[in-house]
Amino acid sequence: MPKMSTMNSTATNAETNTEKPATSRPRPLSPHLQVYSWLITSTLSIFHRLTGVVLSIGLLYLAVWLVIAAYYPQSYDAFADFSASPIGILIMAGWSVALYYHLFNGIRHLFWDMGKGFELKNVTRSGVAVLILTVIFTSLTWAIAMKVGK
Amino acid sequence: MGKLTPSVEAPLKRAKALGSSHHGAEHWWMERLTSIALVPLVIWFVSVVISLVRADHFQVVEYFKSPIHAILMALFVIFSFYHTALGLQVVVEDYVHSKVKKFTTLVVIKLGLFIFAVATLAAIAKMHFSA
Predict the structure, then answer these.
(1) Which of A32, A45, A46, A56 to mutate to test the interface with B (most CBs of B within 10 A)?
(2) Which of A117, A115, A144 is nearest to A130 (CA)?
(3) Would you call B77 an interface residue with chain A, using a CB distance cutoff of 8 Å?
(4) Measured on CA atoms in the order A99, A103, A104, A108, is the torsion positive or negative?
(5) B17 Rama sector, left if φ>0, alpha if ψ -120 to 50, beta otherwise
(6) Domain B2-129, what architecture?
(7) Backbone dihedral region for residue A25 (phi beyond 0: left; psi -120 to 50: alpha; all else: beta)
(8) What's the CATH code of the domain at A86?
(9) Half-sphere exposure of A83 (CA within 13 A, CB side)
(10) What is the DSSP letter of A110?
């Protein structure tokens, strides 16, 4: 479905630009996410980037936490209250999922860098394993966090 | 990056045969090196967050008075900020196509991350050395 709509928009784009020389028309630039059909491998690859960007925001959260703890102790309770609020919990939840996904998929990448696991069957298998491990470790982490908090 | 700053780059770069990518394998290698270091550090970091998430201010400062805690957190901050800078650079290079925008975005991201990293390291040091 997304493939069709992309083709249509490209077609109209080409029609309206017929008088222009081919070189001045905007050309497709890679990576062009919307022109690919759905594959688990490509989806997991996009997730790796997405979680990486999410984690960079998480890192700023860590920075704010430690800077407040060290330099603004009078604001620490306010920060702790925010972290324990529904929004704070949501941030932590997103952070933990992104962290485990990026960790396990990153290990998958390191194996590829060593030339291991490139067979299509194994690429799909390791991808599914990454998803399962992410779910298990995220649940485990939250189970432990809840227990510690009591 | 090479083409953005022609005035400060000597023709030596061409002589070194670095090719169309304008750089060697440093970026790729450092991304891997930091990721290997981060595998155990991330697991440790999660345990720290779990143990400190409900701690009050005094307990957090107390935690970083231990040399091993302060050093491990400093290493985590250094490797993770470095890894983030390298990773975001690739994302920007892939999706920001205007040369000026690309250059500006990279400068803002890299300087911003550097400032945040130094501030975080200073915070760890302050708590570690506090009386």
Answers:
(1) A56
(2) A117
(3) yes
(4) positive
(5) left
(6) Up-down Bundle (1.20)
(7) beta
(8) 1.20.1300.10
(9) 21
(10) H
Residue A91 CA to residue B56 CA, distance in Å, equals 20
Q: Report the number of distinct structural domains present in chain A.
A: 2
- The domain ranges of chain B are 2-129
CB B6 within 8 A of CB B58: no
pLDDT digits (tens, 9 = 90+) for B22-56: 676 888 999 999 999 999 999 999 999 999 988 99
B118 shares contact with chain A (CB less than 8 Å):
no
From start to end of chain A, where are the E strands?
none
How many CB pairs below 8 Å do chains A and B form together? 86
pLDDT at B26: 86
Burial A85-114 (b: 16+ CB within 10 A, else e): eeebeebbeebbbbbbbbbbbbbbbeeeee
Domain limits at A123? 38-149
pLDDT in tens, B60-73: 999 999 999 999 99
Percent of chain A with pLDDT over 70: 78
